[in-house]
Amino acid sequence: MRSKSSAASPNAPQFSVDDITYWLIILILTAIPLSFSTAVYHMYSTPRFALLLILTSVLLALLMGAVVNRRQRRSEIQRALTSKLVLFVSLYLIVISVSSFFGVSPYAMLFGTTYNRMGLVTYICFFVVFISVIVHTVTNHHRFRQTLWAITLTGLAVATYAFLQFFGRDPFVQPQSYTFNSEAGRLLRVTSTLGHSNYLGNFLLYVTPLAIGMAFTSRGQARRFGILSAALSGLAVLLSGTRGAWLGLFIGLLFFLVMGMSGSNVVSNRRQLVRAGGIAVLVLVIVSAIVFLNPASRTIIQRARSLVQDTTGSGRTILWRDSAEMMGDFVLIGCGPEGFRKAFLAYKSVDLARLAPNVNNESSHNAYIDAALSFGLPGLILYSSIIASAFLLLLRANRIARDSSARLVIVSLMSSLVAVAVHNFFIFDQISTGLYFFVFVGLAQSVSYGVQAAKHPDEAKVEGAISKGGDLSSETPIPRFLKLIFLFASLLLFSGAAWYSVGLVRADNEITKAITSAYAGDLDGLLRHGNVAVYESGLTGDYHFLFARTLTLYADLSTGNRDNSARPGAPGTDISKVANLAIAETEASLPHTLTPDSSYLLLSYLAGLLKKPDDMLGYAREAIRCDPHSSNTHLMMAEAYLAKGELESANIEAKRALELGGTSSNAARAIIKKTRSGAEVAEIIQKSLRAAESLREAGKLQDARRKLLRALRLSKDDCPECHKTLALICEAEKLYGDAITEWQIYARQSRSDALAEGTNSRIEQLRQMSTGKAAQ
Questions:
Q1: Structure letter (DSSP) for residue 477
Q2: In angstroms, rounded to a whole number, what is the distance separating the alpha carbons of residues 731 and 735?
Q3: Higher pLDDT, residue 218 or 314
Q4: pLDDT per residue over 589-631, tens digit each?
Q5: Where are the domain boundaries for CATH 1.25.40.10 in the chain?
Q6: What is the C-alpha to C-alpha distance for residues 487 and 211, in angstroms, rounded to an integer?
Q7: Is residue 15 helix, strand or coil?
Q8: What is the DSSP letter of 592?
Q9: pLDDT value at position 704?
């Protein structure tokens, strides 16, 4: 029994485990979208995944502790979670788990690819956050508002960084990583902390309408922050150049305007609304003027123009068409999370391959098609049901809410979901946007429950208990050994999450150091860092492939294959040993990879470095089996046939690579030139000659000259007709010196014809004409 002196004052604020849990949720909502690190190889996905895994493990332990230790909390959680929406999300997680287990690569789908990290574990983390958001905001209006402000201010930070990038003030990342070449010049598409302009646009669609609602329902400094967040977030969507996000933002804001100003949703104080709207418009106009004074604003103009000119949506319509071919084979279970890239290779059309050479899509770029293909038809149904259920809950809450401020917040949440639902036709989720999707769905459940509780006073009693922190003395005694078991399980969960996350971050950091060592010619450093990366990565085999690529980089730099200027490697280095080690690492990644085509392509290249044409050909065949429409794989096959001396086969594969386009076009042309038969070359020369004659007669002398020069480059033997025609062209251009040279070559290569045509006398006439021209 405690003494009176040690008892806490009844009016003293209490900071309970429940408060710690809530602020941990806020930390997750703010830290995940903002976290990245240039010290690691995957600077956006790895830090976020590690942070999400560690924080969620703690969150789950605290949540389960509240359920185990407190009967009141247990009943509150049970009551809050008995809804169709929670059921849909729970079933969705079950469907994802089944798809992961039976997908195209179950082992790899546990954690997902290193690029995106959207495997089963990530979805489990999303589910934990989803449940926690509901539990800790469902009957506490203050916490609900704080959560909305956390999202609004996080969006403000993300948008501010995007503006720094737009004006060339990025303190962390080189602008070259988000600047692209186009017909209109260099285009800058800001990425902020999200790592890609499309992700940035999708993320800020959650924030912009919500920030407007928070601004209109706040006063003073809070209102100004809300207006600033809304204005900057909306403009950052524009600066991202993401056309689908533009469409989503337009529809979302239109929905907000219609719903916010209709019927009972009109804000009671119209003067405040007009004033806030006027300030927002003024801020928007000023910032827009500053933006368009920046030369980088041509990105916006060019992307807007492409809305009319681009009929395929950057190839998305073709990608969707090809993706639809998969549905019959994956209708029940799906290919699993992030399994699209591997499963899609067999369905990729030639049209898509030519439009985007050497690009293998990791997604269908449509969240709804992705749900159907990754998780089967049940996944699509549940994903659509989650969105529809959340929207209906908000719509119902909007109808029964008592005050206009609450209704405006609800409308802003609906507008965000509408905007995102539209953009999801053109994008797929990554960690930050996937997290916010489940958070917004959880907030829809919370606000619906809270509005209903406010309408029915008997249910509102629960709200009073929670908002005051709960009655800590109402804990239900449980056996000591069960508490110890729970404590041990929680420590085990946290330890496992921390061990894997720290190892993953260290592995990513070591790969970065290994690449630096490769460029420095430090083989010992490369091997040391690469081996640590492979060891620390634990359960995934992706780092075997990254290590192999780094070893290949070292070999290329040492032999001059990378930039045609060999750099000295470690003294006494045997490049064949480096290549063999790279082969071993690549083969170690094969059993659980989602990119088998890349692995086999690398193996074929390494076999070429070792002068093993049979192995080179075998690996190239496997690469083509995985991806039959890649120009790089066909080029590698051509290189293999060329190494074996099978010129005709090499010619066929090089032509196929050339047809598919891409960066391999020049290399393919070089192989074609090496492997052309005499008859084929003669036919091309004759065609060039006939074309040149026609162009000469039409007076197009420069075009005719180019045709003849191409024919001369192809010709391995003498080509007197080429020089004769070229001499006539030079005469027409009054280039008498060049004409004399060409006639002399023609005379040497075709003596009898030249004698019969009086070529020597023609040369003399040209000399006289040349002398006369010089005298003038």
A1: P
A2: 6
A3: 218
A4: 998 888 999 999 999 999 999 999 999 999 999 999 999 988 8
A5: 678-775
A6: 40
A7: coil
A8: G
A9: 83
Q: Phi and psi (nearest 5°) for 182?
A: -155, 175
CA distance 548 to 466: 55
- Give the pLDDT mean for 315-343: 91
Alpha helices in 537-677 (DSSP H): 542-559, 575-589, 596-609, 613-626, 631-644, 647-660, 665-675
Q: How far apart are CA 590 and CA 735, in angstroms?
A: 63
- Host H or E run for residue 181: strand 179-182
pTM: 0.82
CA distance to 83, 113, 344, 545, per residue, from 592 (Å): 38, 11, 17, 11
pLDDT digits (tens, 9 = 90+) for 266-299: 444 455 556 655 665 666 666 666 656 655 555 6
Q: How far apart are CA 738 and CA 749, in angstroms?
A: 17
> Which structure tokens are listed for 343?
């499963």
Q: Please choose, from the candidates 449, 475, 455, the residue with its C-alpha nearest in 3D space to the C-alpha of residue 81.
A: 449
- The CA R_g of the chain, rounded to the nearest whole Å, is 34
> Which residues are paired to 186 by β-bridges?
181
CB atoms within 10 A of CB 569: 21
- Count CB neighbours of 452 within 10 A: 16
Pairing of strands 179-182, 185-188: antiparallel
Task: Give the SS3 label for residue 475.
Answer: strand
Q: Are 617 and 640 in contact (CB under 8 A)?
A: yes
- List the one residue out of 695, 766, 769 whose CA is nearest residue 727: 766
Question: In which band, very low, low, confident or very high, does the pLDDT at 454 lie, cut at 50, 70 and 90?
Answer: low
Q: What is the DSSP string of 118-175?
A: -SHHHHHHHHHHHHHHHHHHTT-HHHHHHHHHHHHHHHHHHHHHHHHHHTT--SSS-G
Taking a C-beta distance cutoff of 8 angstroms, is the pair 420, 151 a contact?
no
Q: Which region, left, alpha or beta, applies to residue 661 given φ > 0 means left and ψ of -120 to 50 means alpha?
A: left
Spell out the residues 6+ positions from residue 469 whose beta carbon is closer than 8 angstroms to its own.
Answer: 14, 16, 18, 19
> Which pLDDT band, with edges at 50, 70 and 90, does 535 fall under?
confident
Average pLDDT for 88-93: 96
Asked if residues 31 and 193 have their Cβ atoms less than 8 Å apart, the reply is no
Torsion, Cα 359 542 498 103, to 10 degrees, reads 70
Paired residues of 185 in beta bridges: 182
pLDDT at 623 (0 to 100): 94
Given this structure, which CATH class describes domain 678-775?
A: mainly alpha
Cα–Cα distances in angstroms (integers) from residue 298 to residues 13, 166, 190, 237, 646, in the given order: 55, 12, 13, 15, 50
Confidence of residue 413 (pLDDT cuts 50, 70, 90): very high
Question: Smallest Cα–Cα separation from 241: which of 130, 169, 165, 170?
Answer: 165
Beta bridge partners of 182: 185
CB atoms within 10 A of CB 180: 13
**Residue at 630: amino acid letter:** S
Which residues are within 8 A (CB) of 717 and not within 5 positions of it... i.e. 6 or more apart?
Answer: none
More confident residue, 456 or 461: 456
CA dihedral angle for residue 196, residue 197, residue 203, residue 209, rounded to 10 degrees: 170
Rounded Cα distance between 214 and 222, Å, is: 8
Of 164-168, 343-347, 665-669, the least confident: 665-669
- Cα–Cα distance measured from residue 515 to residue 557, given in angstroms and rounded to the nearest whole number: 12
- What pLDDT sits at residue 689? 80
CB 120 within 8 A of CB 107: no
Instruction: Specify whether the CB–CB gap between 226 and 183 falls below 8 A.
Output: no
Structure tokens at 68: 């185990």
Predicted confidence at residue 464, as pLDDT, reads 39
**Distance separating alpha carbons of residues 575 and 585, to the nearest angstrom:** 15
DSSP state of 501: H
